[in-house]
Amino acid sequence: MGKALSLAAVSLLGIVTTSIAFSGAARAADEPKPYKIENGKVDQGTYNGYRRYGESCLRCHGPDGAGSSYAPDLTDSLKHLDHDAFAQTVINGRQNVNTANTNVMPAFGTTEDVVNYLDDIYAYLKARSDGALGRGRPKRASDD
């Protein structure tokens, strides 16, 4: 009886975990696009996000949000994370330390250069994640 109950609990936990993961991915897919790209040129906020990413995030997450041996590929992460989950992670940090992982992201909630431009950084990374923006410096709408 106890073993059957344990198996049921594990199965239920798996269903709940899978549902949460799918609902987060669904929310991320349903969000309005936080960036605007016309004729290959990005809006000012997305361009600012590129600049801020380069100053504050590139060191760990690598060029263009593509990841490194030290931190995950954010273009992949934003396929699953919606804006709220992204903001929570950046503001509060995250630890994923176990026998297989030793990932620790510090909290940036008091770092003005990050938290004040969080929406711009998200817009840039979301454009990269959606495949709407390639690698390298994007052109601004104001560029000729």
TrEMBL record:
Molecular function terms, GO-annotated: electron transfer activity; heme binding; metal ion binding
Keyword Signal part of the UniProt annotation: yes
Residues in the signal sequence: 1-28
Cytochrome c domain: residues covered: 44-129
Keywords, comma-separated and alphabetical: Heme, Iron, Metal-binding, Signal
Protein name: C-type cytochrome, methanol metabolism-related
Organism lineage string: Bacteria, Pseudomonadati, Pseudomonadota, Alphaproteobacteria, Rhodospirillales
Gene that specifies this protein: cycB
